[in-house]
Each structure stands twice: as C-alpha cells, then as structure tokens.
From TrEMBL:
<dbReference type="InterPro" id="IPR025612">
    <property type="entry name" value="YqjK"/>
</dbReference>
<dbReference type="Pfam" id="PF13997">
    <property type="entry name" value="YqjK"/>
</dbReference>
<protein>
    <submittedName>
        <fullName>YqjK1</fullName>
    </submittedName>
</protein>
Length: 95
C-alpha cells in the first residue's frame, strides 16, 4: 500500500506544474497579442487595399504592353538606384 502514495504525490506535482505552465502560457499569449497588435492593424489595412492594388497593377500591366520602352527605362533606373544604395551602405559600414 505504500506505492500508491508516491505515485499520487508525483501525479499531483505534475498536475501543479502543468497548471503553472498553462498560466504562464496565457500571460505570454496576451503579451504577444499586445506587442503584435500594431503590426496586425497594419496588415489588415494593407489587405483592405488588396482589390485596389490588383486593379492598379492590372492597369499598369496594360499600360506597359503599349509602352514597353518606358518599363525598361524605369527598370534600369531602379537597378541603378539599388546599386547606388548598396554602394553607400558598404562605404558607411567600413567607417
């Protein structure tokens, strides 16, 4: 009859640990929700503009079909700007 008592005590200890972990998880999940709330609002705002972005990119694609040289010109400019930014970053990192 002495064996059930240690098992029962061990079971109670494990149940207590599980309860503490659940409480800690609840606190951490609330904290996580508070920290990520601004990002969630921004994401939802971005998703609210989804249909307008789809329509805008469709119109831009149609425009680029008629004027492909302008697309190439802006693509080259964008690549040039990215290269310049990368060069400036490297120059600032060495200092």
């Amino acid at each position: 009859m002495s064996e059930p008592k240690p098992k029962h005590a061990k079971k109670l200890l494990l149940l207590h640990q599980i309860q503490q972990q659940r409480q800690a998880l609840g606190v951490q999940s609330r904290r996580w929700q508070l920290v990520t709330a601004p990002w969630d609002r921004r994401w939802m705002r971005l998703l609210s503009f989804r249909r307008y972005l789809i329509a805008g990119t469709s119109l831009l694609a149609l425009y680029n079909v008629c004027h492909p040289s302008r697309l190439m010109r802006w693509a080259k400019r964008g690549i040039g700007i990215l290269g310049a930014v990368k060069m400036v970053r490297k120059a600032l990192e060495t200092r």
